[in-house]
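Issue: copy button drops trailing tokens. Both records pasted manually instead:
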Amino acid sequence: MRTSVSKVTVTTDHRVGVLVLDGAKALDVGIAAHVFAKRPSMPYEVRVCGERPGRVDGWNGLAYAVSHGLETLTWADTILVPGYRNPADTSTSPEVIEALRIAYARGARIAAISTGAFTLAAAGLLDGRRATTHWHYTHVMQDRYPEIDVDENVLFVDAGQILTSAGAASGIDLCLHLIRRDHGVGLANHVARRLVSAPYRTGGQAQYVPRSIPEPLGDAFANTRAWALEHLRDNLTLAMLARHANVSPRTFSRRFTADTGITPMQWILRARIDHARELLERTDLTVTQIAETTGLGSDTNLRRHFGSIVGTSPTTYRNAFQE
């Protein structure tokens, strides 16, 4: 008599290690630990560690009591290195460098928030790569590590296994981006709502907005972007966006690009693709229906732009992420 055995699929939480170093900034540490904090909706497990268990002195009179040491880097699937004060005057210990190199060699994903990128640079993990850090230190990094392609005009850089972000707030953008990579737009948007954060800012958005852009115009453009997200199905044009912002099309295009790092119509296209991703994850609408709903017009147009931005087809994406 044969006995059939049913297969049981076990879902393992993605393991995140947060490496807190001397001088660590509280906001950077908090972002890394809080975004991935375990809760029913979050398939992650977080461990905060230091070079060794015990007290780690932070910046501005703060200190952290960590329960784990560098062994956490052998456990983690993703390692986050928060920023710290005075990276130009701070040296990374050989033990931390070796632990990061070993983690990288075994395939762990490693990301830095703000000046945490200097630790990755010291370990040689950014050599020959494009990377970023807080705009105040980009020239310092370029001078100290000329083999790194330092980009001072972005919020974060995704180089595959290695990721870097600008100042602390862009650490949230980086973490949301990691969640999008792991589990799709739906969960990332859910986390963004919980954090009361913008659901998606592209990595290419400028991290430092020139002071020549008047503050009231920035507010107007934010309102226009929110309005555009509610009207993606319409045939949006540059003239319509400028009219909503109450400026000329030329002025709107120039200042929008300076603010976000991409042109208004590129932003609209990415917003439409982002909406399409969530519909693919959370509905059973056909590709043609999604193309109409998002304002992309036809399934051919959707497939073409989806492939160029996301790097795969809508059907393949749906099979990977649909709930």
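Record 2 (pasted manually too):
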Amino acid sequence: MSEFRHDVVGIGNAIVDVLAHADDAFLDTNNITKGAMTLIDEDRAKEIYGNMGSAVEISGGSAANTIAGAAGLGASAAFIGKVRDDQLGEVFTHDIRAVGVDFDTSKAGDGPSTARCLILVTPDAQRSMSTYLGACQGLGPDDVPEELIAGAKITYLEGYLWDPPLAKEAFRKAMTTAHQAGQKTALTLSDSFCVDRFRGEFMDLIKNGMIDILFANEAEISALFETDFDAAVSSVRGLCEIAAITRSEKGCLILSADEKHEVSAEPTNVVDTTGAGDLFASGFLFGVTSGRPLAQCGQIGCIAAGEVISHFGARPEKSLKDLIAEKGL
């Protein structure tokens, strides 16, 4: 086994989030599917951005949010993701390094601009995302340093990034490198629409032992097995080492071959659900890499998720370290 240099290395879309409030009428007028993540081109991104109200810009992306949260809890963390050498690329780089994450992926010098996710939050706290992937899609195997992956306890992979062929090759390289070094991999299914596109490939990864920890919500795990939630839970148990399933206000369900834990959600005032699953993964991965029992890993995940949904935006505003300390964890 390689010597650990990082607790977690994440590979995902390097995106700058642009967040604004909107009502259902705005979504309808702009043909935006409520509660979903829709991929768009640059022209569509400019159109929606031009119609949005005042917005907040911050470094984002699902796996990047998770890695930032893990670093905030005290994990040693690194991120791999592609940006362009433009203004938004500088925003992303500054923000993720500022929270203590190692980020050294080379910037693209030409081609598509840095990715952005236009996030519209409705009064019911649902978020509807329109994502222009831009430079993200240029991530390839050459951007994945073998020594970085081999020296990480867990390599965390974002399902959203399974779309571009080069990124898929990068993921396969990372999974192979991690397992050859005796380390673990984790995959988040990201979105039920993503699952629908790649169900067969995701199932092959899980069944062939390429994924040790699987993250999903109720809709995603049901979509993966094309059945109801209870049947999906029965089906996933034992296919991978750990399955961590989030259930919104019901908390989470943690499964392994010989353990099953139902963990309650943290009481909170829900303002914006953006990043809830991402930050749950932050807490859970921190718990696993620090050697905690699975139920406690789930509890830390719920605490982190509870913090991020209590305010606008997908990054914590309060110290996650302090929050888990207050709970005696």
